[in-house]
Amino acid sequence: MKLINLSEGKKIYFASDNHLGAPTTEKSFPREQKFVSWLDEIKKDAAAIFLLGDLFDFWFEYKTVVPKGFTRTLGKLAEITDAGIPVYYFVGNHDLWMNGYFEEELNIPVFHKPQEFTFNNTTFLIGHGDGLGPGDKGYKRMKKVFTNPVAKWFFRWLHPDLGVKLAQYLSVKNKLISGDEDVTFLGEDNEWLVQYCKRKLEAKHTDYFVFGHRHLPMEIELNSNSRYTNLGDWIVHYTYAVFDGKEMKLEKYKKDNKSG
Questions:
Q1: What is the pTM of this model?
Q2: CA-to-CA distance for 42 and 11, rounded, in angstroms?
């Protein structure tokens, strides 16, 4: 359990699923500019920022190489952490292969599983959301392959120009890998992350469950004292969540940038 106490006027921010680089770096550039503008705005009152995965549409860390691009995003994150504002990162299904770069270069801790946090005596369970709860069986099978040490070892031996290009192609084309095969609301009984949260509540109370992955912004009351929030995405919805120490809200970033 990690504890963060918010001082007066400070807030906790959450965002997920930018998929920078999809479908191409050029086409995602206006979305990156918009996200960087949002980061620049929220740093003024942020006590902490939580990024819940799939910031990039593909990310793989070789021993001495990381994917080209995303300079503005990485630079802004470095600026924020250098200013003493903590940023926490949860890997998604597109960036499973983080292995030290964010920690060493950006001072951003990286989590591969959901984590519990307490903000001002309010409890949160936070994660990307892939592979949790019932269903999502195709992806669960695929994830076992992606996280297999032997598979990662073989992929690392591909030249980065070939490996990154191949992975980017598969990431955009394969809906099973992307996790966005169906971004319509399935109904509370069929939303597998909702079911996951309800099962967790049987063992332990949590005030807020916060996940991404579904690309669909939603807020669902699990019971009178607990809520599930899905952050949506920064492709279609440009949604994020903010906790002010008392209340959690899902909001939409509406500011346009000069490129789009």
A1: 0.86
A2: 9
